[in-house]
Amino acid sequence: MITRDLLKDEIDNVQDNYLDILYQIIRALENPPAFEYSCLEISNWKDFINKTYGCMSDVPIDRAEQGLYEIREAIG
Q1: Quick check: is 42 in a domain?
Q2: Which residue blocks in the chain are alpha helix, DSSP H?
Q3: How many domains does the chain have?
Q4: Quick one: what percent of the chain has pLDDT higher than 90?
């Protein structure tokens, strides 16, 4: 197991030109972002989908004709 003392000893061996990078890494690990979603957030998303799903069912999506486009010179 790695202890704080062992980690501090290893930091003393880091070259000076890497200290800025090491500091940024340590700062990033102090408060890692939380990627877990609560049950409330998930249920809110499901409620949103249930309320809005099908709200456009009476207006179906139709794709119009492609149309004609200007022919241009080849690239390259």
Answers
A1: yes
A2: 4-12, 19-30, 39-52
A3: 1
A4: 30
